[in-house]
C-alpha cells in the first residue's frame, strides 16, 4: 500500500517540478501584457511586451527586421504601479515556496523508500509539500487575476522618458507568460491535491497485527 501511494506521489512530484519550472519561466518573461500603439517618433505601429521585471519594445528598421529593446526595472522604481509591485513579490514568494515544496517532497519520498514511514503513522509525510503547493497555486491565480484586471481596465504604466513608451497603449491583450502562469497554477493545485490525498490513504491503512 505504501509503495503504491509512493508511485502516486512520484507523479505529484513530477507535476510540481513542471509547475515550478513554468512559474520561474513566466516570472522572467516580459509577455505578461502585449501593448499595441503608434510610436510618436517614428509614427509607425509598435508592439511592446510589459512584464513584471522588464518591458521590451519591438522596432521595425529599414531592412524590415525587428529590433528588440528591453528596459529593466524592479519594485524599488517609483514608476512601477502597485499591482506590478504586488505581483513581483507574489511571483518571488511562489518560486521560493515551490522550490521548498519540491525539497520536502523529495525528503518524504526518501523516507518512504527507506521504510521510515510505517502503517500506523498518523502524520502524512506529504502534508507540508501539499499545503505549500496549494498556497503557491493560490498566489499564481492572484497574480493572473491582477494582471487580467489591469488589462481589462486598461491600467497604464508611467514609464520614464528614457523608455520611449507611452503610459497607456492603444490596445493591449494577454501575453504568453500569463498563460504559462495559469498552467503552473493548475499543476501546483493538482500536485497539492495528490499530496494531501495520501493523508486519507494513510489513515485507511490497516494496522499490522502481531
Question: What is this entry, summarized?
Answer:
This protein has 4 helices and 5 strands, in the order αββββααβα. With about 210 residues, it is of the alpha+beta class.
Compute the number of helices.
4
Shape: elongated
Fold-level CATH name: Butyryl-CoA Dehydrogenase, subunit A, domain 3
Main-sheet strand order equals: 4-3-2-1-5
CATH architecture name: Up-down Bundle
| Count of spatially separate domains | 1
Helix content: 40-55%
Q: Which class do the helix and strand fractions yield?
A: alpha+beta
Q: For the record, what CATH class applies?
A: Mainly Alpha
Unreliable stretches, pLDDT < 50, 5 or more residues? Answer: 200-210
Rounded radius of gyration (Å)? 22 Å
User: What oligomeric state best describes the polypeptide chains here?
Assistant: single chain
Nearest-integer average pLDDT:
84
Q: Helix-strand pattern, N to C?
A: HEEEEHHEH
Strand element count: 5
- Measured between the Cα atoms of the first and last residue, the distance is 18 Å
Percentage beta strand? 5-15%
Largest β sheet strand count, sense and barrel closure? 5 strands, antiparallel
Amino acid at each position: 500500500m505504501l509503495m503504491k501511494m509512493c508511485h502516486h506521489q512520484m507523479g505529484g512530484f513530477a507535476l510540481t517540478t513542471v509547475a515550478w519550472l513554468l512559474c520561474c519561466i513566466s516570472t522572467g518573461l516580459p509577455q505578461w501584457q502585449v501593448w499595441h500603439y503608434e510610436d510618436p517618433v517614428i509614427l509607425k505601429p509598435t508592439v511592446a511586451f510589459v512584464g513584471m521585471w522588464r518591458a521590451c519594445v519591438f522596432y521595425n528598421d529599414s531592412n524590415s527586421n525587428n529590433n528588440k529593446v528591453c528596459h529593466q526595472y524592479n519594485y524599488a522604481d517609483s514608476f512601477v504601479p502597485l499591482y506590478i509591485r504586488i505581483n513581483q513579490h507574489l511571483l518571488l514568494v511562489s518560486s521560493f515556496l515551490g522550490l521548498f515544496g519540491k525539497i520536502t517532497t523529495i525528503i518524504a519520498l526518501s523516507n518512504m523508500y527507506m521504510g521510515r514511514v510505517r502503517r500506523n503513522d498518523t502524520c502524512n509525510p506529504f502534508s507540508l509539500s501539499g499545503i505549500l503547493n496549494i498556497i503557491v497555486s493560490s498566489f499564481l491565480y492572484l497574480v493572473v487575476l491582477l494582471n487580467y484586471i489591469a488589462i481589462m481596465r486598461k491600467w497604464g504604466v508611467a514609464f520614464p522618458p528614457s523608455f520611449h513608451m507611452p503610459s497607456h497603449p492603444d490596445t493591449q491583450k494577454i501575453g504568453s507568460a500569463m498563460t504559462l502562469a495559469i498552467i503552473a497554477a493548475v499543476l501546483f493545485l493538482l500536485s497539492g491535491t495528490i499530496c494531501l490525498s495520501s493523508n486519507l490513504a494513510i489513515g485507511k491503512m490497516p494496522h499490522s497485527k502481531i
